[in-house]
Amino acid sequence: MVSGQRLSDVFRAVGPLYREAAQRVARDEQLEGVSTGVRAVLEELLAEGRQTMPAVARNLGTTRQYVQRMVEEAAAAGLVRSVPNPAHRRSPLLALTPAGRAAIRRILRREQAALAGAARDLSDRDVDACLRVLHRLRQAVREGG
Amino acid sequence: MVSGQRLSDVFRAVGPLYREAAQRVARDEQLEGVSTGVRAVLEELLAEGRQTMPAVARNLGTTRQYVQRMVEEAAAAGLVRSVPNPAHRRSPLLALTPAGRAAIRRILRREQAALAGAARDLSDRDVDACLRVLHRLRQAVREGG
């Protein structure tokens, strides 16, 4: 059991990290020609596999309208495609194309190389604890009063 | 030493949490009449004490122009004020007014009450590790390649 103050401290760390990482990602856009929003969709599909558009929106914590626009952009660039959904004929699945998979892998590899310094000081236990805290906070934000 | 993939996992958790928390904060705006941006400035001044406008921008990971607008909005509402800076006469310090301090405390109390469920499952060690990871990642983003 931790104090509410400590949980606020986590949010206070999340905000600046998110904003600075987003600026960083935006600066790197020209390298791969992939916008920040498309990058997020590609990363989600790589990490969690093919899924419906509403599932992508829910997982990214954003709106279906936004994801729809990003998917159109990504499809036009040949990075994602729709595939039939065996479970729901009316709700196709989004999947990476081979080019999409290659692009997001290159992007992540570059980002991860830039984070190598941070990796040196951290342990897997630290990261496990961090992910546990972030996931519980997200649940709390979703359910919370 | 952790893998770059694991650090990407942390960013992948930070993004949705940030976006959902921001939506939540935006929904709560009407309660206190304080916008999301003003709320961030008030919280920063409460946590870290009086400081210059450039310092607030740097700490929040945002631009001076944005902080300037938020400070004008907050000053107009009587929530922050400028005080002389003993170290630099040309760069005044921003400080909370008593009304600003009371407002941000009410906001944080309400948010923390909504997070009580998350607090129950987490330990101080988890939160310490989480903050360590987030701070190292922010340093890495700032320095990184």
How would you describe the overall organization of this protein?
The structure is a homodimer of 145-residue chains. With 145 residues, chain A is mainly alpha-helical. Helices cover 73% and strands 6% of the residues of chain A. The first copy, chain A, contains 7 helices and 2 strands. Chain A has helices spanning 4-32, 36-48, 53-60, 64-76, 98-114, 116-121, 124-143, and strands at 80-83, 93-96. A two-stranded antiparallel sheet of chain A has the order 1-2. Chain A is globular. Chains A and B meet through helix 1, helix 2, helix 5, helix 6 and helix 7 of A and helix 1, helix 2, helix 5, helix 6 and helix 7 of B.
Oligomer: homodimer
The mean pLDDT of chain A is 93
Helical stretch tally of chain A: 7
Strand/helix succession of chain A: HHHHEEHHH
Question: Helicity range of the residues of chain A?
Answer: over 70%
- Would you tell me the structural class of the helices and strands of chain A? mainly alpha
Major beta sheet of chain A, specifics?
Answer: 2 strands, antiparallel
Described by the principal axes of the CA atoms, the overall outline of chain A is: globular
Question: If interface size is counted as residues with C-beta under 8 Å from the partner's C-beta, which chains form the largest one?
Answer: A-B, 68 and 67 residues
Number of strands of chain A: 2
- The low-confidence runs of chain A, each spanning 5 or more residues with pLDDT under 50, are none
Beginning-to-end CA distance, first to last residue of chain A: 19 Å
> How are the strands of the biggest sheet of chain A laid out side by side?
1-2
Strand % of chain A is: 5-15%
Question: Compute the gyration radius of chain A: what is it?
Answer: 17 Å
